[in-house]
Amino acid sequence: MDQELLAQPGVRSYEMKSTRCDGSVRYDLNKKATLPGNDGSVGGIVGVIIDISEQKRMEEDILKAKNLQSLGTLAGGIAHDFNNLLMAIVGNLSLARMNTPDNGRLMDYLNEAERIAFLGKSLTQQLLTFSRGGNPVRSIVQPGSLVSSVAARVLSGFPVDCVYDIPPDILPIEADEDQIRQVVENILRNARESMPAGGRITITIRNVSISPEDKLPLMEEDHVRVSISDEGAGIAPEDIPKVFDPYYTTKGMGSEKGVGLGLAISYAIIRKHNGSISIESVKGRGSVFHINLPAYKHEVAREAASAGRPAGEREGRVLLLDDEELVLEIGKELLGYLGYSVTTAQNGEEAVALYKQAEELKSPFDAVILDLAIPGGLGGKEALRELMRIDPKVKAIISSGYLNDPVVADYREYGFQDVLTKPYDSNELDEKLKKVIGR
């Protein structure tokens, strides 16, 4: 660069990347300019070096977010139809289990088939996490008990010693419990697989106050920090920036190895919870993941009270709205088996008319289950608005396989009392109805 400046005097700017002694990466912006001599020639060169590492990290975060949004658009397009098919499969398997005599081997086959079908639901939910509209369905969560329960399940049967450092005064968080479980599970699986011969995993949870000195893209407020460290092989410095990229994996591709989505999904989930996730790692000395989530400090008496309410009677009249005939058929079978009287509708207009007729005949429905998306007609959200004009106390459950719609995440804001995500089995269906009708 100096030779170029001597040949062509002026100003030059360029970036340089270097690795510090601790393995972290530094980016510098170099600016140089020539100084004229007394005889008109170049008398010297002056320069300045600016550390732009933080700016580079922010640019990488923005690029990751754009990549996740592109994947979300693709995933959202197929999720609804895929989950409707899974709904029919899971529903039939559930009915088969309930009508199968006590045959140990046959029941094992049905249980395994149902487990595999729910893996399809899990994959769809993971892909939809990338979607721009896939907001978390939040509740009050105790991070200590959540992390401990996930660790006990993921690490069971492996030669791993898990050490917990979780004080009793850890603040709760307001989060989507299933999504946070998914994040912790992804990180613990990576930690476990990095130590095939065994080792120690340490889980530390702390209440922390974020300040500008932390240089984190977070609000300056109280957070809960979950740190998960392992004694595995570690990650090379040049690979650390790629860890949260979609489809990046060191395990190879395949159903038993990995698809490189786990940490990318974890990154998307934590960002949607207004938190942050980062990694520190030294090749040959292990890794530590840090998750920061906003703390929730308000009283949760109302949540606890609603959880302890009596379920009430199970039997009742249920109106089921769905545009898919397969889903209507299996839903009617499941509800009938559980003891409910069922009326079905394939569009919102028909559901509203049936509900109004039942009210006029003094034989009202105890609950309605409304599919969110009805092509060419009233969907669940619009149908509920009409139903609330007929009966402001209507007890409605939203049903959807399209989990990135804000109605699913904020169902209470739209007048729904609960949500059923497709596919669901008879146990989940019965549990939701008992809770809603019991209210």
Strand order of the largest sheet: 5-7-8-10-9
Major beta-sheet overview: 5 strands, mixed
Q: Unreliable stretches, pLDDT < 50, 5 or more residues? A: 252-259, 299-314
Number of helices: 12
Q: Element order, helices and strands?
A: HEEEHHEHEEHEEHEEHEHEHEHEHEH
Rounded radius of gyration (Å)? 28 Å
Measured distance between first and last alpha carbons: 75 Å
Average pLDDT rating: 81
Shape: elongated
**Strands, total number:** 15
Helical coverage, percent range? 40-55%
Coarse structural class: alpha/beta
Please report which band the strand proportion falls in: under 5%, 5-15%, 15-25%, 25-35%, 35-45% or over 45%. Answer: 15-25%
Protein model, in words:
This protein is 41% helix and 23% strand. A hairpin with a 3-residue loop joins strand 9 (276-282) and strand 10 (286-294). It is α/β, with parallel strands linked by helices and 439 residues long. It has 12 helices and 15 strands. Residues 252-259 and 299-314 have low confidence and may be disordered. The strands form 4 sheets. A 5-stranded mixed sheet has the order 5-7-8-10-9. A 5-stranded parallel sheet has the order 12-11-13-14-15, with helices on both faces. A 3-stranded antiparallel sheet has the order 1-2-3. Helix 4 (143-155) crosses helix 5 (177-193) and helix 5 runs antiparallel to helix 6 (262-272). The longest helix is centred in the first third of the chain and has 46 residues, at 53-98.
Task: Show the helix and strand layout.
Layout: H1 2-7, E1 11-19, E2 25-36, E3 42-51, H2 53-98, H3 104-128, E4 139-141, H4 143-155, E5 160-165, E6 173-175, H5 177-193, E7 199-209, E8 222-229, H6 262-272, E9 276-282, E10 286-294, H7 301-307, E11 317-321, H8 325-337, E12 341-345, H9 348-360, E13 367-371, H10 380-390, E14 396-400, H11 406-409, E15 418-421, H12 426-438
Parallel strand pairs: 5-7, 11-12, 11-13, 13-14, 14-15
Antiparallel strand pairs: 1-2, 2-3, 4-6, 7-8, 8-10, 9-10
Helix pairs in contact: 2-3, 2-8, 4-5, 5-6, 9-10
